[in-house]
């Protein structure tokens, strides 16, 4: 069943599209576009399916002329006919449309008959043209085959004139081939390659081409020829050779050169008694020697106007007895060896109409090969359909960018996800795209595309995209497309965006977890150190003041011992909660060991007041358990300028506080230098 | 019961032409109903209010095409005149009066079609 042709209707008016659809729906599959942009997108997606475009001129977004221009740029205009439909009657418009490659112009109001007829005719015209184009291209590729066809036709013309059976040419070829193959088996004197054997066999068909110049009355004379007539007949070998020498391809085509030798010398004899040149022995090219023997054999076993057919055995006897002239003894050996094969081969090939069937075969092959490009297209189309199917199933944001048309198309589902159009012209200047990416990210992405190489074409990156008002993480995987995969010419980019927001958030959480103390939600010691290092090394200068508060819970061991570890944990969490409600976001607070904590904070003045406030807030009771802490404080820059020094001094101050009876804080001063430390400094 | 032919006569449309092209009254009615829902005229009106002559030209052009396709010749002529003035896509003193004329013609057209559709419901 022939697939229905698909027609694309492009018109901004719903009514006009419906009118056309009404007229065409019975005979065609239809796709509709409400403006030029949609049309261009549909064309780039379905160009091999669309047989014709009905195009309005005046439309929003992109008008009909721009669509034609785009089709010119992409080359679609050569394969997809466009019929313009417009209420414009001014010749300027019409001319412009034709100049841009429109095939037809229909003005409004249109009637059904006109539209149907023009659509049908235009599609037929283009289909025929396409078919012929296919034929020509594929035929050019099949030069060898064409040579054969030409040889075949030429030699059949000769035969037709000779009144021969139409099989002679084919017989000569079969016999020649068989003899040459046999010759190869018996000697390597002639250095015959399989290619040469094939060429000589093909060229053999032209051996009698010179007969075309011999009057028919002589050629087909049933009775015995007079000596004068025989002399005329004998000219055919030299004439045939001359004909071929004059052919334009003589210099360049080995086939023609071989054929010329065969033409001139296929009536020479090994003993020098042949014509036209009286060549002797190996002076005669082997190709002509073989064809001459084949010619004689076939003449004997075939019916001629002047004789009946001899049997294979009779013919063999006559040749071997020298009744038909002298031949190369080696070739006679070949003939003897190949004899049984020849008898069988010729019988098979002599079935009536065999040569016609062979020609038909060839013609069918040609037509089939002519269709190959259509078949390739069909396969391609199948792939595309498959791809589209999986694309729609996979719920992925897939995109395709074409440099030529500067058009970005995004899969339907993907465009909906991103909240952008499915088709975007000039994406680099498009505000939707600009909103999607931050400009730095977009630059980064473009740079990756530009630097990708065919050896390693796949690129990827992870970027936050602004999707429908919120920022989400997307991973993009893409690859540029090159002409023939050579980096010289970039044709497009394909790829997809994967929403990795949840994964990214999870990753962030994992990173977060690595710095958080799970029991209290405060930072852990390692992170607190890193964070303080960062501040002290990079941010803090001598005009800023920071205080490091190190403290532990007095007699915490007793809470664990008396109330259990679970309760102990609750106490720790309670202290953490007290810390968090009394420090700022910018302060660093951490649990640095069992019941030991630190707070690192900036202060302006009134250090004591601030410490006092925090100290008080930490003391209190939890579920009837009294919480008190001991605290040591060291200050930047006075007591130290790096983490280790500050920590060590705060720790010594803590020890001092404990020595003074706990439940108090103590600011570091130089008198504490020699004290032991309160907490471990590991 | 008002026939499509009578309706066309009232509206000075070319019934012979539309029936030649569309063959049946049902189809003509279907497209007349679509025309009632069509927003080209509203677009034209809004565009003119906003002095957006590019959009106005496009809308007028589209409307002209639709009217021609429906053989509503009298209205198509009026809109066609307006379209030609708008083609320059800039302000023109003729636009005002022509739009008045087009509005009246369009209103009459809508009323005529509605009458046809309602009576035949």
Supply the key terms.
heterodimer; A: about 675 residues; alpha/beta; Rossmann fold; Hypothetical protein af1432; 5 domains; 6-stranded antiparallel beta sheet; 5-stranded parallel beta sheet; elongated; B: about 120 residues; mainly alpha; Four Helix Bundle (Hemerythrin (Met), subunit A); about 0% strand
Structure description:
- The complex is a heterodimer of chains A (682) and B (121).
- Chain A is α/β, with parallel strands linked by helices.
- Chain A is built from 24 helices and 18 strands.
- In chain A, the strands form 4 sheets. In chain A, strands 8-7-6-11-10-9 form a 6-stranded antiparallel β-sheet, sandwiched between helices. In chain A, strands 2-1-3-4-5 form a 5-stranded parallel β-sheet, with helices on both faces.
- Residues 140-144 and 349-373 of chain A have low confidence and may be disordered.
- With 121 residues, chain B is mostly helical.
- Chain B has one domain: HPT domain (Four Helix Bundle (Hemerythrin (Met), subunit A)).
- Chain B is 78% helix and 0% strand.
- Chain B has helices at residues 4-10, 15-22, 25-37, 40-49, 53-69, 73-86, 95-119.
- The radius of gyration of chain B is 15 Å and the shape is elongated.
- Chain B starts with a helix and ends with a helix.
- The model of chain B has no long low-confidence stretch (mean pLDDT 88).
